[in-house]
Amino acid sequence: MHDQKNSAHIDGILLVMTAELDAARYIAFVSFRKEGTPVSTAVWVVPFEGGYAFTTDPDSWKIKRILNNPAVTIQVSNVRGRPKRGSVAFAGTAEVLDPAAVARVREAVRAKYRIMYRLLIERSDKKAAKKDGSASAGTAAIKVVLEG
Hints:
By secondary structure, the protein is of the alpha+beta class. It has a single domain, classed as Electron Transport, Fmn-binding Protein, Chain A (Pnp Oxidase, Chain A, Roll), CATH 2.30.110.10. Helices cover about 40% and strands about 30% of the residues.
């Protein structure tokens, strides 16, 4: 769960909102192109070490954009990345995680999205393993720490 000590200082309001992020099936992850255009992508998300994290391809545009500008927003959304009615967009700072952290994020994602993970990710990993020899070599993870 998000760090409650940092969240409670706003009379519990931020704590309630981040509980919504903790339980979210999808979030709209918004990063910014060099010229400032926002790009929203729906991702699976897990609470992770004082922030929120998700896995992605190491060559993804999300990675390239946050390496250029780590300022992002996240908001509870549907599978298509459309924000949930009444949800709040949180500003944060994104970072690409090291391989040890990537493994922990993968395990957290596997635990939260059990059936969908098996159907989508494990099948994809098996195909990659046959092709490249490693099921997780092409996985990266991004962590977002909320402002405030």
